[in-house]
Amino acid sequence: MMKKTFFILLFCVVALFGNELKRVKTYLLAKDEVKKVLIKTKNAQKLLRFRWTLYKNDGLVVFTSFDQIPSQHILYLNHKNQSIRIPILPRGAHDYIEPYLLLRFDEFDFSKHKAKISLWIYDKRSETLLKYLR
């Protein structure tokens, strides 16, 4: 009984304080539809652009550009490669886990030929401001 109470208490603490990753926006994107997000911190502002170009063999090909650095990813549903982690600040900039964005592939709507992608943020100190441009 005591073991069960301990695990329930541990679960409540983790649920309240352990998960500071927050979903901030959900997009339903058509092929090659570009979305832009301006990320502002106290020292800089950077632009995130993303779009998808192909859905084949359960993989979504996503192109991103963050701070003018392009990259390409293949994301899968219910898989460890379901999201893209984008660090907002360089490593070692703080004495805690640096803020980051997460682009996550949530589902694909075959009838509309659109991908549902959600944008998440981890920012323990709430130092980041997001502006949705398009």
Give structural notes.
It is a single chain. It contains one helix and nine strands, in the order αβββββββββ. The protein has 134 residues and is mainly beta. It has one domain: Tick-borne Encephalitis virus Glycoprotein, domain 1. It has a five-stranded antiparallel sheet with strand order 5-4-3-2-9, with no helix packed on it. It has a four-stranded antiparallel sheet with strand order 1-8-7-6, with no helix packed on it. A hairpin with a 4-residue loop joins strand 2 and strand 3. The chain is globular and about 45 Å long. About 7% of the residues have low confidence.
Topology (SSEs and partners):
Elements: H1 2-18, E1 21-30, E2 35-40, E3 45-56, E4 59-66, E5 69-76, E6 83-87, E7 100-109, E8 114-122, E9 129-132
Antiparallel strand pairs: 1-8, 2-3, 2-9, 3-4, 4-5, 6-7, 7-8
